[in-house]
Amino acid sequence: MRELLGFSYLKPVLAVFAAYGLQLIEPFYATTISTESTHTALKSFYKSLYASMENPLTIQFFRFDEPAFGGISVELFKQVKESYGMSVIEAVIQVANEFQEETLAFANLVRPELRTVLARQRRDYGLDEQQFPAEYPIEQQASKIDDTPVNDMAMIRPLGKTE
């Protein structure tokens, strides 16, 4: 990966991928697999995220002062930033500053496609009933959706532990 940084034309692409990882992918994943998540909370999260992805991104997307998308808490965003590390964040900021027009254009080119993927992938939460109607609405999948686990991570975690 570091060898690719020698190609200046790839730097904006890599910066956009890293920024989306920090601003969208990691918070999405963490929220989705959280053992404390409920279907009601996930529905609210996905809808907020989907709605906020409609707006064009600004250069603030690459500043990492606050979450760029709705539904992502400041606390979760801080944890993601910590896991990425300041060296990665500073490198992305530096590239975004150097190639501001290119990084912003590419980030906005990708954004609608990511939004479509989210709506298609989470269609049963009713994100976009016009384009992607729910096949199996989450409310119909269980009589008490918030008493139904959204994943089995709590059961899987102990399997890898040895005592």
Number of discrete domains: 1
Estimated radius of gyration: 18 Å
What is the first-to-last residue Cα distance? 37 Å
In terms of per-residue confidence, which ranges show pLDDT below 50 for 5 or more consecutive residues? none
Write the layout of secondary structure elements.
Layout: H1 11-33, H2 39-52, H3 74-84, H4 86-98, H5 100-121, H6 138-141, H7 153-156
Helix pairs in contact: 1-3, 1-4, 1-5, 4-5
Written description of the protein model:
It is a single chain. The protein is mostly helical. It has one domain. The protein contains seven helices and no strands. The longest helix has 23 residues.
Please provide a brief summary of the model.
The chain is mainly alpha-helical. The protein has helices at about 10-35, 40-50, 75-85, 85-100, 100-120, 140, 155. The chain has one domain.
Based on the model shown, name its key terms.
56% helix, mainly alpha, 163 residues, globular
